[in-house]
Amino acid sequence: MATLNDTATRPQLAHLTEQLDDLRARGTYFHLRVLEDEQAAVCRYDGREVINLASNNYLGLCNHPKLREAAIEATRKYGVGSGAVRTIAGTMRIHIELEEKIAAFKGVEACVVFQSGFTANAGTVSSILGKEDFIFSDELNHASIIDGARLSRAKIKVFRHKDVAHCEELLKEVQNEPGRKLVITDGVFSMDGDVGPVKALCDVCDKYGAIMMVDDAHASGVLGRNGRGSVDHFGCTSRVDVQVGTLSKAIGSLGGYVCGSRDLIDYLYHRARPFLFSTSHPPSVAAACMTAFDLLESEPERIERLWSNTRYFQDQLISAGFDIGGVTTPATETPITPIILGDGRKTMDFSRALFNKGVMATGIAFPTVPEGKARVRCIMTSEHTLETIDRAIEIMTTTAKEIGLL
Fold first, then answer.
1. How far apart are CA 342 and CA 1, in angstroms?
2. What does DSSP assign to residue 373?
3. Active-site residue (options: 55, 190, 220, 284)
4. Strand 42-45 and strand 256-260: pairing?
5. Residue 143 and residue 5: Cα distance in Å, rounded?
6. Residue in 218, 281, 373, 384 annotated catalytic
7. Is there a catalytic annotation at residue 190?
8. 218 catalytic residue (yes or no)
C-alpha cells in the first residue's frame, strides 16, 4: 500500500523545491486562500470574516439572483455539460445566442466565446499571425497576450508602457518589410489600473495599415456606455479589428470572448486551437452570462455605485498617506487601486497582516510585477458600503503604522 512518503518529490524535480525555498527566503511564498461562502464584499476566507478587496466581481453579479435563476433553469433544461468541443457536437443553441448577444452589445458583426480570457487572447494572437509577421505589444500587457505572441512565432516588438510615439517608431522601422503588423494593448492594465491609449494607437494603426487589437478584460462592465469597455469609451468600435473581453470579472461568470468582423470570427472557428480542442461551456454558464449582459443595460446604477465607491476609496487612501501611484491624485484611472510598497517581503508581510486584521488585499511581487514595484492591489466593487470602506481604511492605516509603512 502506498504511503505519504511514496509521493514525496523525487530528485528529478529537486530544482522545483530549490525555487520554492528561494521564494520562502524572499518572503514571497504564499498559500492559496480558500473562500467558504459567496464572492461578496464581506465574506469568509480560511475561517475568517474579511472585507474583500481582492475580487474582480466589480458589479456584484457573481451572486445576483437573476444569474442564479438563469443558471439553474438552463441546467434543468439542458443538463450540466455540453459533452464535446464546439466543432464536433458541443455547439448548443444557447452558445450561439450568447455570441449573438455579445456581438449586438459591442456593436460588431460577430463574436466567439472561449473557455477563458486567457485562451481568448492566446488563441487569437497565435492563430491570426505567423513567423513572417510583426507584433507590437505594450510592455505591461497581460501574460496571455505575451504567451499568444510567442506561440504565433511572429517577430515581437515591445514598446514602452503607453508610449504611442515609441510604438510608431517601431512600426516605422519595419513598415517596408513583408508581413502583417499587429498592435496590441490592454484596455485597462491589471496591475496599475491605468487605461490604455486606445484612440492614439488606432491613429497609428491607420497610418501604417496595422491590425489593432485591444484586451478589454478589466474594462468590460467598467468603462464605456453601460460597461461596453475602453473601445467604446474612446469611440473606436469601428477602428479596432480585434476586441477581447472576459466573462469572468464584471460579468460574474466564466469565459472570454473575441469580437470583430464575421470573417475574423469564422477564421477563429477554424484555426484558434483553444476553441478547437476544448469542450464548450456548460449551458448554465452561457445562460448566466446572457442575463448579465441584460443587467448591464437594465441596472446601470451598479456601474454608478462602482465609480462612486472607487473615488471615495482612493481619496481616503491618499488622505491616509498611502502611495497609490500618484502624488496628490491616483495614477490609477479605474477601480484597480495599487498601494505601492516596492519591497516584495514588506508587501507580502503587509498583506498577511491585513488579512489577520480582517481585510483581504492581495500582495503582488516579482515576477508578476517588476522588482522594486511590489504592491498590495485593491479592487473596489459596487457592493461595498461606505461603512465597509471606512472600516477597511481604518484597518489598513492602523496596520501600516504598526509595521512602519506609514
1. 49
2. -
3. 190
4. unpaired
5. 36
6. 218
7. yes
8. yes
Q: 291-337, pLDDT tens digit by residue?
A: 999 999 999 999 999 999 999 999 999 999 999 986 556 677 999 99
pTM, to two decimals:
0.94
What is the spatial distance between Cα 166 and Cα 241, in angstroms, rounded to a whole number? 21
In order of their start, the domains of the chain are 27-58+300-402 (3.90.1150.10), 64-298 (3.40.640.10)
Phi, then psi, of 69 in degrees rounded to 5: -60, -40
The answer to whether the beta carbons of residues 50 and 355 sit under 8 Å apart is yes
Q: Phi-psi category of 369—alpha, beta or left, where left has phi over 0 and alpha has psi -120 to 50?
A: beta
Could you identify the residue written with the cell 460597461? 227
- Which amino acid is present at 143? A
State whether residue 157 is helix, strand or coil: strand
User: Residue 265: CA atoms inside 13 Å, Cβ hemisphere, count?
Assistant: 20
In the set 181, 249, 281, 346, the catalytic residue is 249
382 noted as active-site residue: no
Cα distance between residue 296 and residue 288, in whole Å: 13
The answer to whether 312 touches 172, Cβ cutoff 8 Å, is no
Q: Around Cβ 240, how many Cβ atoms within 10 Å?
A: 29
Element housing 234 (H / E): none
Give residue-wise pLDDT tens across range 339-393.
999 999 999 999 999 999 999 999 999 888 888 999 999 999 999 999 999 999 9
Residue 200 and residue 229 in contact, taking contact as beta carbons nearer than 8 Å: no
Backbone angles phi, psi at 227, to 5 degrees: 85, 30
The neighbouring-strand residues paired with 85 are 279
